[in-house]
């Protein structure tokens, strides 16, 4: 067990051996949870939580797809709702 202290601003330094064990890098999100018996658990956040949404810009763009009018969208919604009933 490694001892660390809380600073006046409420931060604590994660010891290097734990950072290495969890394979954490600067900026990585982590989950911290408290169990009913008072133990604190720290783990890397799931990879989905680490996706920068800015990297997704344009991923759905298809230059060959023709634009759809609002009326066509509304018709597709009506037809889709009818299929689910």
Task: Report what the structure shows.
This protein has helices at 16-21, 70-83, and strands at residues 30-34, 40-44. It has one domain: Pemi-like Protein 1, Chain: D (Ribbon), CATH 2.10.260. The radius of gyration is 24 Å and the shape is elongated. The protein is α+β, with helices and mostly antiparallel strands. 24% of the residues lie in helices and 12% in strands. Strand 1 (30-34) and strand 2 (40-44) form a beta hairpin. It contains two helices and two strands.
Give a brief description.
The protein is an alpha+beta fold and 85 residues long. Helices cover 24% and strands 12% of the residues.
Which helices and strands appear, and what pairs or packs with what?
Elements: H1 16-21, E1 30-34, E2 40-44, H2 70-83
Antiparallel strand pairs: 1-2
CATH class: Mainly Beta
**Radius of gyration, in angstroms, nearest whole number:** 24 Å
Give me the secondary-structure category: alpha+beta
> What is the molecular shape?
elongated
Average residue pLDDT: 89
Largest sheet descriptor: 2 strands, antiparallel
Provide the helix percentage.
Answer: 10-25%
Strand order of the largest sheet: 1-2
Order of helices and strands: HEEH
Task: Figure out the total of helices.
Answer: 2
Strand content of the residues, in percent? Answer: 5-15%
> Runs with pLDDT <50, length 5+?
none
In terms of quaternary structure, the protein is single chain
Distance between the termini: 58 Å
Tally of separate domains: 1
For the record, the CATH architecture stands as Ribbon
**Beta strand count:** 2
